[in-house]
Amino acid sequence: MQQATSQTPAVRVFFSDLSGITSFFTRSPKRTTILDEIVARRLPRASSTRWNFNSRIVNTVYENLDDLIECFRSIATDISFDSNTVREASGFLRMLQDEDFKFFLHLFHQIMSHVDMMYQQLQKKNIDAVFIKQALQNFTMKVQSIRDQSSFQEQEQVATGTTRSRRALGEEEKQRLSKEVCDTILVHTKERFSFTDHLVSATLLQGEMFQQHGHTFPVEALNITVRAYPMLNKAKLKTELSLIYESPEFKGCCGALALYQVLLKYNLQDTFSETVALLNILITTPMTTAEAERNVMGQERLNALAMLSMERELVRNMPAFNERVIDHFATLKERRAKFQYK
């Protein structure tokens, strides 16, 4: 999603405009009061690192578009607001009524629902390569469907000859952008989760696969596994897995963790040493990664926090340290929250 929104200037502008709407209301309690009265719902903040926050603001604006238009119209015509507020409200009013803005809002409202579902699935603790593969297939299928819908509309316009009008040229550009956004998401999704390809061996360990491999051993999957993890003894691993496939005690196991627990329960880790070694790899390899929050923290702030941590005893002994910090913070600029009582 980061790549899809940063590579296309029009999309980058769209998300910048969305975050501007949130900032407009958070800067003034008076504006927020109008928002509460008309829309009756606060706008979530956008985030450059957590896409579920961007999804929330897209969905909120999409679902409350008419009320937001009425809210900005009310602010723009209210003589009690200053000229800067009226000017900004008028600009946001025109933006929300703009067809291009509505197009991107509708497009990402469609896409974000599938992003949210994928995001929620990736938060589960018991996921493995098989689960990830299935979730990715479902996600890419949905995004591909959105892309194909744009292609169909474009072909329909060409067939009817409507692409010659000025309005149709605009529609053609929108369809191109839709496909570009979807293509970017599909390409980077594949690249982002390409590490799961060599974990295809996890399919060997799924309960529903035992019956399938009861007569034909999955040699190709075994070869992929050994190439990815050359420390494994191929011949011994094949023998162990063959025994596992034939054993009724293991057929109820679904997933690498379940099989691992059964082997430990019956103290079979020495008997099936290569299988246990593979299972150790599979159940400890993270299916997702999360960047540290340091990516939104400047070096100066990082240094200051590190100094506070190293000199915490000194800080604790400073008289009224917290109160002095709050006073300094409160006087830097005007803030919505009241840190000082006068």
Structural class: mainly alpha
Shape: flat
Mean pLDDT: 81
Residues in helices, as a percent range: 55-70%
Radius of gyration, in Å, reads 28 Å
The main β sheet shows up as: none
Task: Please report the total strand number as a whole number.
Answer: 0
Name the poorly predicted regions.
154-169
Can you give a write-up of this model?
With 342 residues, the protein is mainly α. It folds into two domains: 191 residues, no CATH class; 89 residues, no CATH class. Helices cover 69% and strands 0% of the residues. It contains 17 helices and no strands. The radius of gyration is 28 Å and the shape is flat.
Question: In a nutshell, what does this entry contain?
Answer:
This protein has 342 residues and is mostly helical. It is 69% helix and 0% strand.
